[in-house]
Fold this sequence. Notes:
- The protein is an alpha+beta fold.
- Helices cover about 50% and strands about 15% of the residues.
- The protein has helices spanning about 5-25, 30-35, 40-45, 65-80, 80-100, 105-115, 230-265, 280-310, 315-335, 350-360, 365-380, and strands spanning about 120-125, 140-145, 145-160, 165-170, 180-185, 195-200, 210-220, 270, 275.
Amino acid sequence: MDFTLSEEQLMIQQAARDFAQNELLPGVIERDDAQRFPTEEVKKMGDLGFLGMMVDPKYGGSGLDTMSYVIAMEELSKVDASSSVVVSVNNSLVCWGLETFGNEAQKEKYLTPLATGEMIGAFCLSEPEAGSDATSQKTTAIDKGDHYVLNGTKNWITNGNSAGVHLVIAQTDVEKGHKGINALIVEKGTPGFEIGPKENKLGIRGSDTHSLLFNDVKVPKENRIGEDGFGFKFAMKTLAGGRIGIAAQALGIAAGAYELARKYAKERKAFGTEIANHQAIAFKLADMHTQIAAARHLVYKAAWDKDQGNNYDLSGAMAKLYASQVAMETTVEAVQVHGGNGFVKDYHVERLMRDAKITQIYEGTSEIQKIVISRSILHN
Ligand SMILES: Cc1cc2nc3c(=O)[nH]c(=O)nc-3n(C[C@H](O)[C@H](O)[C@H](O)COP(=O)(O)OP(=O)(O)OC[C@H]3O[C@@H](n4cnc5c(N)ncnc54)[C@H](O)[C@@H]3O)c2cc1C
């Protein structure tokens, strides 16, 4: 394994870093305060190719590898996790799911506008009574011959209101359990499809998280992804890759907080010297730096596994579990290094601390990652 970044990967890293500093940073505090979705910023990210990074250029994507994607995710997340989650969901859940399992007609109709950022997508699995236990789907997609009739509620959907296309997981045949679940492409505006109110959140407040309500929504059969009953497998396989994106997001949040803490520690004086000269502060920075480097290696290893065609269930789960823990610990310590200034919004670290928490919850909580990891090491 050689994790030296190629010329192309270094250029992508620089482009994402510049975009984060020049375009995301200026309005990030205001968007967080107002819970405002980064509409303009997402459009620009689409123009730069960040929304379909791994998609084949014949469908309007950038044709890059997973390594390039995690590198970009880290840089964007250092500054604005509300924007980077749009990149993550669109790339690793929606575009990857469609490109890998969709048919040619679905790719032509939906993948191209999603990869270019003409519209963004949402991935709709969670329900009021089906979060970690995703097999307990209550949303139904009843087979009516040439179409399905969709009824039920989805919870916590990222890009809930902004997405033009929703990949919705629903139960067709209860008798068959998880083998009776389907994944359907549902367009915004389809009659009977309502978007619930926006959630008022602790972190990633710029991201629009909504519940979705389906009331006798007619979905054409051609919008089913894969064979009848493939929906649960579709969701699990897609989430396995999604976790690598969220691990990279957690890594970026941690690295962003560390960079701010390091800078502040070299400027702020107490007891006649820069606080970095107090060993208690210097050691915090040493711990952060070490843990971030370890998290980065896990994230790169998971991305490398995916690029090599290896199984990445274990490496992806380990990367997400560890990077999200590092994000939480690093951001708490970054606030501490900033003292009272860490507690106010202008210094950014309190927002990064609030944003870090979600990386331990979505796309499988830390406890669920431990189930994936322990099953893999005990039963393989
Ligand atoms: C901001 C935000 C955005 C989200 N975006 C999306 C999205 O775009 N699409 C989507 O489908 N979902 C999304 N989610 C939902 C998210 O994936 C779920 O919240 C998550 O999977 C946990 O499910 P839950 O909230 O129902 O918690 P529960 O499953 O009720 O879990 C509660 C607690 O119990 C623990 N627990 C549960 N089962 C076990 C077990 N077997 N062993 C040990 N511990 C266990 C959990 O780890 C957790 O600590 C989002 C959530 C949030 C908050």
